[in-house]
Amino acid sequence: MSDATLPNPTLLADRALIRVSGEDVRGFLQGLVTQDMNNVRPGAPLWAGLLSPQGKALFDFILWDAEGAFLLDCEAEQRDALIRRLSIYRLRRPIAIEPVEGGVHWSPTPGRGDPDPRLAELGWRWLGEAMGDAAIGWLEHRLRLGVTEGVGELGQDKTLWLECNAAELNGVSFAKGCYVGQENTARMNWRAKINRRLVVAPLGDPGDRTRATYPELGLMVEHRRVEAMGDALIPDWLATATASNT
């Protein structure tokens, strides 16, 4: 069955794909991203970040194994910027970093694809043709589960990766070798002290902590201190982590 004939709309129209391929492409990405590339396998995509040297989020994406290459499932609006950033590190290595056609699809119920690597409750995700109607309900579903993503919510060079709840959402490996931003990220983990977190909260008056607002959903994303979470939505996956830091 083609994506165009699926019974329910599934396309995440705000996502796009980048293909990274070439000699030792796994090793190339291993030295850049927050995930251990040895764990990215067919049927096992992983969420990862590309950070600044200070350990702050620049881009986030989901990595997919593509038979000797890797596909990055990223924000469509940030695809060109992410390609440029990755290309800085290529130097003279025979690595190709290029946009490719295709779509990212989502369903809240099983039947196709792989569980979202961040949180099983997010649903199922797969790659296919960029066809069909846009998925209904994805944004609210994600936010109600407290999961933030993208430059608009994470910020760009504004938020430390662990403040993006990367450890709780399986977005970082503490067992791999060096990558860009690894030193600060590892230090924060070792100290077990994360003072601020990105959280979803009921819509209120925007302030200097506000990253994104969604009036149509009555929600917003804020960067709050853990001792001042206020009315933030704290799902079970985040409750233990925030309690230990207060």
Concise description?
One of its GO terms (biological process) is iron-sulfur cluster assembly. This protein is α+β, with helices and mostly antiparallel strands and 246 residues long. The protein contains six helices and eleven strands.
How would you describe this structure to a colleague?
The chain folds into two domains: 9-140, 2-Layer Sandwich (Alpha-Beta Plaits); 142-243, Elongation Factor Tu (Ef-tu), domain 3 (Beta Barrel). It has six helices and eleven strands. The chain has helices at 25-30, 79-88, 138-144, 150-154, 182-191, 236-243, and strands at residues 15-22, 46-51, 57-65, 70-75, 95-100, 103-107, 114-115, 124-128, 196-202, 210-214, 219-225. A hairpin with a 4-residue loop joins strand 10 (210-214) and strand 11. The chain starts with 14 loop residues before the first strand and ends with a helix.
The percent range for helix content is: 10-25%
Radius of gyration: 18 Å
Kindly report the oligomeric state of this protein. Answer: single chain
Q: How much of the residues is beta strand, in percent?
A: 25-35%
Task: Walk across the major sheet and give the strand order.
Answer: 2-3-4-1-5
Per DSSP E runs of 2 or more residues, the count of β-strands stands at 11
Whole-number count of domains: 2
Order of H and E elements: EHEEEHEEEEHHHEEEH
